[in-house]
Structures are given as C-alpha cells and as structure tokens.
Amino acid sequence: MNAQAPASRDPRLNRPEPLTPPLGDGGFFQRDRSIHPPAHAPGYKSSVLRSPRLALLSLEGSISEITGPVFGHNDLGPLDNDLIRNYAKDGDPIGERIVVHGRVVDETGRGVPNTLVEFWQANAGGRYRHKKDTYLAPIDPNFGGCGRALTDDTGYYYFRTVKPGPYPWRNYVNSWRPAHIHFSVFGSGFAQRLITQMYFEGDPLIPICPILTTIPDKDALDRLVAPLDLNASTPFDSLAYRFDIVLRGQRSTYFENRTAGN
Amino acid sequence: MTQPLNYLKETASQTAGPYVHIGLIPAMAGFDIFEKNFSNVLVTPNTEGERITLEGKVLDGTGTPLRDVLLEIWQANASGRYNHPADRSAGALSEEFRGWGRAGSNFESGLVTFETIKPGAITDRAGRTCAPHVNVWIVARGINIGLNTRLYFSDEEAANAADPVLNLIEQPSRRSTLIAKRTERAGKVVYSFTINLQGPEETVFFDV
Fold it and tell me: Fewer Cβ close by (within 10 Å): the C or N end of chain A?
C-alpha cells in the first residue's frame, strides 16, 4: 500500500502555517457542543438512563487535560493496521476488500502527528467477534475486526480491511445500524480524546439510524460519511474510502518561548 | 462581508457502543489478536510510588451498574509530573510510568479496577498546588460523547480543601462525588469510587 499522504480534498487541510499567535496558554479551543450529539437523545434509547442531567463544569485548560498519553511504534505490532491479515487463520476474510485512509488534523488544519488511532468493526455479514454479540450472521474465522495505527508526521493514517455489513439492534423493533467502523483517537492532550464512527457513502440506512441522527447538525453528520476514493484504490485489489478526522485545535503556548520550568 | 476564518469543525462524537472491547480491549471480547495490549495495570515492578488499587462502578439512572462501560485514566507520577512534553514542572520523569490505562467493567458485576500508584500533588501552570488526582474518561453504549471526571483521595483532606478545581464546584456537597475512599484490604491500599451518571448523587462531570 502507498503510505504517501495524498493531497486532501479540502484545501484547508493542506494549509501549512499555524493559525494561532504564540501568546496563548496552550489550552484547547472551546468544544463546540452544538455539533456533537447531546448526552440525552431519547431516540437512542440507551442514552436515556446514561446521560448526566446537570450542567458540565467548565474547566479551562488545566495541565491535566492539555497533557495526555504518548504512544510510539513500540506499542504496535507489524500487522496491526492490516485487518485482512491480522487474524487470518487459513485464508483471507470474506468481504469487499477496502482501504480506509485519511488525516487526523486539528481545527486549524494542522496534521496531528504520531497519534494513536484505533478502529473496530463487524465482519462483512454484520457480526462482531464479541462474546456478547448473538446476531445470527456467522463469525468469520479469518477476521478479528480490530486494528490500530500511528499517524505519520503529517497526521496521515491508513489501514486495510473488509467492508463491514449492517446489522440489527435493539432500539425500535426493526432498527438496523448502517455499515460503520468505530474510531478511537487520542491527539496530544486528554481533552482531545474522541470516539466516533465512520459511515460509507451511499448507505440508505444512514438517514434513519437512531444513533447517527443524535447529531443535531447536518454538516457534522455528513462529515462522518466517508466518500469512495477511487484514486486511492488499487486496481484489481481493493477500493478505498477517505476519512479525515478533526480534533480540537490548540492555542500556542508561550512556554515554548521560554526556558523549561518557567 | 469579512474574510472567512476557515477553522475546521471537530469531528462529531459517536457512542463507543456495546462492543468497544473488540477494538480497545480485545481479550475482554474473547479473543487474542495483538502482540502488545493496553491494560488496567499502569505500573511496572520498577515504578516509583505507593501502589494503589482504584476500584469502582459506574451507575445508571436507576442505580444499576453499567456492565459494558470502559474507563481510561490519565495521571501524574508520584512526583506530580505528567509524562508528556507539555508538562515542564520540576518533578522527575520515569520511563517506568506512562500514566495512562484503560479498563472495561466486569460483565457481571460492573466492577472496574486499575492497578496504579498514587499521584503526587501537581503544580498547575499558574503556580498553584493542586491536590493529587486521577483524570477519568468514560465511554459506553448510550454515552454519546465521552464523559470527563476526576478522582481525588479521601486521605488528602487538607489538599482537597485547597484544590482550585474542587473549589470551582459551587455546592460543597457535590465535591464528595469526586472523592475516592481509602481502605486497606489484605495489606493492599484500595480506593473505592462510585460514578453516578444521574440522580441526586450525580457525579460532577467536566467540560474540559
């Protein structure tokens, strides 16, 4: 596979210069909660009893949240970003071979380098390799369904997998999840920690998904739908989907201009 | 009209779902796939500091423990320093302590445990001393965006009383929702906590 970062479809993602003056306190931009699902979203029934009802207490950029765990290549194995091979026992998994790739950037468009991206998904039949999943579609003996990657210096990541299938779940009597891949991303500080889901262009289940439609902002929802990226596909091998992830931006820190400890 | 500012928007959060273990703790999902795995044990035999167990549950609005919840913790080392380049404080750093771990709750009891060390007091960037604490991030089915809270320690009464974050909480009674209680069990130090997602004892959650 090609590890070279391609030009993004969004020119803002390629802007090289930082956008914040070097006078800040190093805190993250305030989170715009209007583009996130509210904690209490009754259409997604599980959220009703699991949502805090009191106001969150705002905590501006303390050292405990500006910092976060640092990961390196030592934490990963060589097949961790190849879901076609990382659990193969006697052959390849069943399903449409795809590559998922993109950049992790922050709200200023800067790439987030060397950050851990983890992903997990159902198999091509919509079944998870999980002891609590009882859907009747079969387990694929050659598919684990999870992987991870470290972004490169530009924030680029990629992995190879098979396209997951949709599956039914208990919400309404006939609720189905659109095909999706779960993503977990760290960033440089604990306040950037994010879990989300990537969906696939053209899936008719997207507009009726009770989980996806917890997102109140149409554009924010659209940004979770990965387009087919034919240019990044490999002829006679696999299609590609492009999924860029935006983490919160960070103000520059004046500590950078002083000697350590000041 | 003005020039456009052109900031990007953060990617929207989505629930981690009931099968979060597959991706983040595959052994709990029932299979072995990675050579190297992350866990709820933050210490190595060479980590400096007082060994402690953090043990607790996350309760829903009916008081029932979540049995599919995942917690991550992030904390300073025994010298009060985070293992991250943005922490320029004076404490010593050690290769033997990353300061981060993750744990899934037990599928039957809902119990979550971490094996770690008690962090030192932290000097924040304004030079104030902050009581020792552990930062907690909570995701699960039904939680649409990860919840941030903290655990403080019951045997740090004076430090807790002076802590700038605990003192931001308007109602003194709510501060206790963040205090883990110290006990000793078979010679081991255990701090117990309960995180209430809702109800009269609702835990204080932060917009960080």
Answer: C
Q: How far is CA A56 from CA A2, A24, A193, B135, B149, in A?
A: 43, 24, 17, 15, 10
8 Å CB contact of B148 and A57: no
**Chain A residues whose beta carbon lies within 8 Å of the beta carbon of residue B7:** 19, 29, 107-108, 249
Q: Which of A59, A148, A196 sits opposite B12 (nearest CB)?
A: A196
Pick among A67, A169, A250 to test the B interface (most B CBs inside 10 A): A67
Out of A148, A160, A177, A251, the active site residue is: A177
* Placement of tokens 């098979």 in the chain: A162
Cα A93 from Cα A243, distance rounded (Å): 22
Q: Rounded CA gap, A43 and A36, in Å?
A: 15
Assembly ipTM: 0.96
Selection from B205, B67, B64 nearest residue B146 by Cα: B205
Shortest CA gap A240–chain B (Å): 20
What pTM does this model have? 0.94
Nearest-angstrom CA–CA distance, B28 and B31:
7
